[in-house]
Amino acid sequence: MTAEEIVAAMDGRLHAQEDGRADAFLPSPVVQNHAANLALLPDGSLACVWFGGTMEGMGDISVWCSVLAPGAAQWSPARKLSDDPGRSEQNPVLFTAPDGRLWLFHTSQPGGRQDECEIVARVSDGGLDGFGPPRRVGRFRGVFIRQPLRIGPHGEWLMPGFRCITPAAGRWTGSEDDAVMLVSRDGGESWEARAVPGSLGAVHMNPVPGGAGAMPAFYRDRFARQVLRSRSADGGLTWTAPELTELPNNNSSIQAVRLADGRIAMVLNPVNAAMSSARRASLYDEIEGEAPGEAAPSAAVWGVPRAPMMLAVSADDGETFPLRVELDRGTGAALSNNSREGLNRELSYPSILQDPEGNLHIAYTYHRRAIRHVRLDRGWLARQLGVQAARPGAAGQAGSVP
Q1: Which residues form the Sialidase domain (predicted)?
Q2: For residues 60 and 80, is the Cβ–Cβ distance under 8 A?
Q3: pTM value?
């Protein structure tokens, strides 16, 4: 789709197809939209939060939200949930606490300096309409978030994060980032950071509770090799060192969820650095204006294409993902964050959840111009996996959904 076609489609209307799939482009008044996260609200509404403005890292980047009410066929107009003109507010996450209050967490940083970010929270007693003033979470300079919170074995709040570490010389590059679990035992009032051992380059930690054994967590890989996985035997408080899985990763976000039948479904770009020579200097090279030699040498890999968008399913708690279905395809060009001129073509940063009726909902970045929502009815997955299972030699092969 061209930039003009995307803009014309951003009306929030769900378009149903005969195979049980429906999709929509969420409304937004800004030119760049990225990093969606889905959440079910207590009233049954499906909420999507993301960040938007002119370009990632700019001071006009704020958190936005749209809602799909139960039974509705159109997403609501986007509303702005944060607005600090001096900082780039990114990676929002909604969390309904055990007491029913709704929390919005997001990061806040100056320019492209992720190593100087803070985590900010707003709390509401009245859903999306009642958020109080922003407040800083802990004293975690440089700790970023991306994935949903979980409840620990004794009621702890577990917020996965990663440390954006400044190198000894030059600016942040991502090469020294590692994973932490932020733990609160007093309902979000105070937090402690627990390091994940051996997690250099492992970011966007995504725990997946609900299995019979040790809990797995999956990670984005800064070095664009494979999705990483570690395990916790104590409900998410401590973790083993991350190890490479069979799934490729391009140093872009993934997200996984436990399905009602016990399987794990993950959405991702099945691409890594070995599959492409495309590279860029850094995530923020368009806004940093770095002088020659200012940036530290980077082992982190940036610029690998971010497409196609794929759904992968595991029946062995994340050991293997033999069942894979392609949801969307494109060039995935990610050498620029420029949305206004249509230079970015990525399909990235997916979020996934399953609603009480068994439908799968997936939201992801579309060319950094829009957030796309895909709903797959409860029979869709069974049909797709059935087709793959019946196809000779189908294990590990990608089916295609137009």
Answers
A1: 44-362
A2: no
A3: 0.94
pLDDT digits (tens, 9 = 90+) for 140-167: 999 999 999 999 999 999 999 999 999 9
Return d(Cα 186, Cα 189) in angstroms, integer. Answer: 6
Per-residue confidence (pLDDT) for residue 382, from 0 to 100: 81
Which burial class, exposed, middle or buried, applies to 4 when counting CB atoms under 10 A from its CB (0-12, 13-18, 19+)? exposed
Model confidence pLDDT, tens digit, residues 230-267:
999 999 999 999 999 999 999 999 999 999 999 999 99
In 140-292, where do the E strands start and end? Answer: 143-145, 150-151, 157-163, 178-184, 192-195, 202-207, 215-221, 226-232, 243-248, 255-258, 264-268
Task: For residue 53, give both structure tokens.
Answer: 């403005």
CA distances from 158 to 15, 132, 191, 340, 381 (A): 36, 22, 9, 37, 30
Q: Which CB contacts under 8 angstroms, 24+ apart, belong to 224-233? A: 224/249, 224/250, 224/251, 224/272, 224/273, 224/301, 224/304, 225/249, 225/272, 225/273, 225/274, 226/272, 227/254, 227/266, 227/268, 228/202, 229/318, 230/196, 230/199, 230/202, 232/207
* CB 364 within 8 Å of CB 309: yes
The structure tokens listed for 381 are 């997955």
**135 close to 122: Cβ distance less than 8 angstroms:** yes
- Distance (Å, rounded) from C-alpha 68 to C-alpha 235? 32
Q: How far apart are CA 27 and CA 41, in angstroms?
A: 19
Can you give the C-alpha Rg of the chain in angstroms?
20
C-alpha span between 55 and 76 (Å, rounded): 23
What residue has token string 């069942």?
A: 323
- As a whole number of angstroms, the distance between CA 321 and CA 397 comes to 10
Which residues, in sequence order, are bridge partners of residue 388?
none
d(CA 37, CA 48): 6
Task: Give Cβ neighbours of residue 92 (< 8 Å, ≥ 6 apart).
Answer: 35, 37, 49, 50, 51, 63, 65, 81, 82, 104, 105, 106
CB-based contacts of 73, cutoff 8 Å, min separation 6 = 13, 14
CA gap 144, 180 in Å, rounded: 10
CA angle 232, 238, 242 (to 5 degrees): 65
Q: Please enumerate in sequence order all residues whose Cβ is within 8 A of that of 66, keeping only pairs 6 or more positions apart, or say none.
A: 12, 26, 27, 28, 47, 48, 75, 76, 77, 78, 79, 371
